[in-house]
């Protein structure tokens, strides 16, 4: 298969893993209108490819995953701020991330700020390089988050810490993010991509249908009260297990 070509997103395949790289390192991978649309298209392309079972999302360069919306672009045309949250769903990377049924690993290679932070939180697993940092500057620039930051962050690190980040507009480093449960691990920058791809291959080795169903139940259940979440899991278990066939344990290597 010929790998698709975009101007602001690199799309690579490593077996069953699609590797998507935000490719504006000269602008710290700021999310221009073009990059947002191309990232959404690349995510949909990976989702529609039956051979892709996991995705790694990262940024080009050693300084930044993404610093959020392109402020130079917004200064030149303020209407583009509205298009980021009220534009066509087909051009929304946040919506494309939410719609992906396969697992997405975000390899955070530096700054993950504001909109870039939101994209990272929309992924399933976050791995951070030692030089990574996370921050929300919505209050500083005078814009409201529209890709889930106000809801996801507080559910992960608690409302007090989340409000400190929202109101203070200060960054936290990778070690703090790890201590707060924001990322699953912190690794040297030189090892980040390798470890993210290895994790993706581990995920891709399992039945993509059950991985997708587990992802659905976790994501939907996380937004529900505990009792409702247990009912959701119970219903999913009854539906899935009633049609499941016995697994040959010796073949799975369990």
UniProtKB/TrEMBL annotation:
Keywords: Lyase. One of its GO terms (molecular function) is enoyl-CoA hydratase activity. Its EC number is 4.2.1.17. PANTHER family: ENOYL-COA HYDRATASE (PTHR43802), IP11341P-RELATED (PTHR43802:SF1). NCBIfam families: PRK06190.1. Belongs to the enoyl-CoA hydratase/isomerase family. This is Enoyl-CoA hydratase.
């Amino acid at each position: 298969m010929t790998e698709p070509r975009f101007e602001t997103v690199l799309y690579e395949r490593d077996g069953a893993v699609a590797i998507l790289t935000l490719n504006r390192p000269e602008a710290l991978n700021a999310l221009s209108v073009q990059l947002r649309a191309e990232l959404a298209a690349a995510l949909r392309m990976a989702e529609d490819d039956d051979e892709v079972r996991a995705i790694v999302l990262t940024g080009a360069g050693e300084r930044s995953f993404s610093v959020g919306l392109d402020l130079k672009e917004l200064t030149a045309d303020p209407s583009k701020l509205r298009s980021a949250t009220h534009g066509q769903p087909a051009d929304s990377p946040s919506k494309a991330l939410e719609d992906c049924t396969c697992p997405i690993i975000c390899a955070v290679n530096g700054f993950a700020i504001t909109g870039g932070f939101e994209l990272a939180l929309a992924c399933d697993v976050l791995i951070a390089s030692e030089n990574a940092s996370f921050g929300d500057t919505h209050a500083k620039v005078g814009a409201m988050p529209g890709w889930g930051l106000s809801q996801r962050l507080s559910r992960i690190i608690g409302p007090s810490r989340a409000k400190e980040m929202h109101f203070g507009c200060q960054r936290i480093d990778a070690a703090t993010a790890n201590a707060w449960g924001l990322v699953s691990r912190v690794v040297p920058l030189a090892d980040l991509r390798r470890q993210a791809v290895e994790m993706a291959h581990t995920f891709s080795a399992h039945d993509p249908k059950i991985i997708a169903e587990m992802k659905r139940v976790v994501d939907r259940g996380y937004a529900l009260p505990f009792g409702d979440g247990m009912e959701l899991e119970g219903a999913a278990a009854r539906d899935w297990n009633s049609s499941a066939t016995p697994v040959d344990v010796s073949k799975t290597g369990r």
